[in-house]
Each structure stands twice: as structure tokens, then as C-alpha cells.
Amino acid sequence: MKTGYQVLPEFRIVQHERDIQVLYALRKFFGCGVVRRNHDDRYELRIRKRSCLKKVVEFFEKHPLKTKKNVDFKKFRRIILMMERGEHLTKEGLIKILEIAMEINTGNHERLRRVLEEIRGLDEDTVHPHSERMG
């Protein structure tokens, strides 16, 4: 089923500009990603490539976070694993991924809710004419 939506997960780490070298070191360690300005005096490492996201997931499985971010990481990992199984290509899988993403991305909550409602309303044979990035 084509919905017109793509699931494009990304992993981001934000640091103050005084710690930008941490982001470059992580980019070198993972062998991928982009360091760019996030906001004012903050920078971020952003990783979107699926093969690189797999490296990130494997790293944090071996070295679990000790903060509440570990809960978000486990949800992120679940989305990545669902995508590896192709679940994002089904209506049910896409809905589940959106529900998980809404628990992680509270800043995008309203946009994700709109997309979720739209996808829930699609018939199984519907081909949606536009594409919007989720996540």
C-alpha cells in the first residue's frame, strides 16, 4: 500500500558550540552524519542514513544510556527494527511507528497526530498523491 509518506528516522545529538569537537569525534567514530548549527550557540550531529543508524543502535545496545534518554532510545530502536522488517510499508506498521514517534518527538506531536489521523482514514488500496516526511 502506498500512502505518500516516507519514514525517515534520524538520530540527533545537540551540544553547545564550546563542545562542537564532541560532535565531530562522534561523526568520525560512527563514520557518518552531518554536523550543523542547531540554534544560536548550539550544534547538532544528525545521522539519517539507515546503515549508519544501525551502527548507532548497535553502539547503544552495547553501551546503554544511564539517563531517561534510554527510554526514548529503546523506542527509536524499535522503529529501526520495524523498518528492517519492512513493517513501515504496511498501514498497520506505519500507524504503529507514528504512535511510537509521538511518544519520542513531543515537539512534532501535532503534525504527527495529523498524519496519523490521515493514514488511519486511508483505504488499503489508496494511493496518496503527496509525500511528507515523518519523524
From TrEMBL:
Location of the Homing endonuclease LAGLIDADG domain: 2-79
GO molecular function: endonuclease activity
Keyword field: Endonuclease, Hydrolase, Nuclease
InterPro entries per record: Homing_endonucl (IPR027434), LAGLIDADG_dom (IPR004860), LAGLIDADG_Endonuclease (IPR051289)
Keyword Hydrolase attributed: yes
Record-linked SUPFAM superfamilies: Homing endonucleases
Pfam families per record: LAGLIDADG_1
Protein's name in the database: Homing endonuclease, LAGLIDADG/HNH
Organism expressing this protein natively: Thermotoga petrophila
